[in-house]
Records
---
Amino acid sequence: MTRGILFLLMGLWLPGKSLGQQRQASRPSAGIPPQDACAASCSIPTSPAKPAEARAAAWRCLREGLSNKDADHRIQAVYALGTLGVQSVPRIESELEDKDSLVRQAAAKTLGDMQASQSIPSLQAALDDQSAPVSFAAAQALWRMGDKSGTSILVQVLAGDRGRFTPA
């Protein structure tokens, strides 16, 4: 997953390099560490000569990351999508409905970081999430965009009247 995200963020794949370190010439696929599983399964082309193919592979990797059974992969995919701009907002918004509260929290935080004002209605709905960290992240995101509809949640958290939370 990490290599796939790095690839997407760089816009091209640099053969032989991985996160600034020299990659071994040949690594048996069975020995690929978990963080490299997405890059292996996404079939990311090693040639920057075909940018359309590389772009399609990167989007495919992100879609696979969003549908991965592992919540950590979905969270990484949400954060990666957040760096891509407005075209990724609907995909991030859909993660506000994820079964895992940490994924929903990441989606709310990312939408706030992106200043995705088109997501205000979805974030307002997330204020009612059963998970206090999700509703808090939604309230923070809305506040950053000038929408004060989550103010009561922020006040409740500060007063200690709302459940335990982990800041996004």
---
Amino acid sequence: MKNKQTLLIIALIVIIALAMVGCNEDNNDTTPPTVTITNANQTKTLAPDLVIELSATVTQGTNPIQSKEWTLKNATVDGVTPVFADKTAATTTVTGIKKAGTFVFELKVKDTTGVEGTATVTVVVNAMTVTANIVVPAIPITTLPATTLDFGLPSSYTGYNSDFPNGCITYTLKDNKNNNFNGQVNAGDSTLGYVNSEGITFTQTFYYNNQVVGTRSVLLRFSTSVGGRFSAIDANLADSEATITPDGSWATRGIIPPITLTLSKTITEILPPPITKIVTVSFPASFSASTNINFSPTSYIPENGWGDFSQSEIIYTVTCTELSKTYNSSTGFNVNLSEGYTEGNTYTFTQIFKVGSVEAGRQVIKANVLFGTFASLRDINNVALSPQAIPSITLTLTKPGTW
């Protein structure tokens, strides 16, 4: 009897052991979910509105599917936070990619027992190229003979945008005698070495990012017979062809033609839109002949309040071109005749406003020195201002934005 009981117990143990082995074999035979990417590895170009489509099919394995989730598994650049339209859907879209690079997205699927199936898709985002056409306006020479020629400021050019902001263009100006100018040519300057009836070529060379993007030249005829002036727009014209009309003006007219500068650059990161603020700056309401010019602003009035800006962020300077003299907040903005300004000369004052290193606006004021005072105020084209006062100026303050 005792032996029969022992045999029975052994038999039960064997049956249980075999059952456990069968269960393990069943578990080992569990099939995981199958994940198949339906839009294989992709190549995109960086853009502000870039949308990446992720698509996959999911097939159930042994057990029902419990969850699906897309993630950014790895990337060749840091600081990228993708935004999934629905990270739990087999097909979804991704936005928020603001940098060029290689991105690997993974879809992970789990069944009810925790068994996983995964698949990845690689998306290469190439850098984008942006361009702009900056137009340098023509310079009409409406009065000849001309004592001075003003080639203007880059801030007057058109075509700037957020990728190529105002201030990104600079230029040099020189003549064929290797004289360099700061935008303005004074024909009466005896140090230039001009000879009567000589043709003088002036060449503007334009730069973007320290690279030459265009040149513009004009050939003028210098004449001492008309008091050291440019007597014709073309050096080949004789004095007889640049005659004086009955009204006392010179018959020869001309124009320095416009030029379009085509700019291009590669962008590997899309920055957030800049924060801007419009501010109106006003100056003393009137000006009369005096030994001083007061360039101090009387008020800064922001549109709809200061917001993200403050008046203290604005850097303001006034520079006299002819004397290479700069006035700023530490030296004051009161220009005094005794500082080297001489009788009979015209002086060019450039007002520049910046926030940090970014220019917010500028304007040019000219003033003659007559009878021991600063006389009439004029604009960049040498036209008398009416009323005689420094005009108000509208600034566009700019600083980097955030996503």
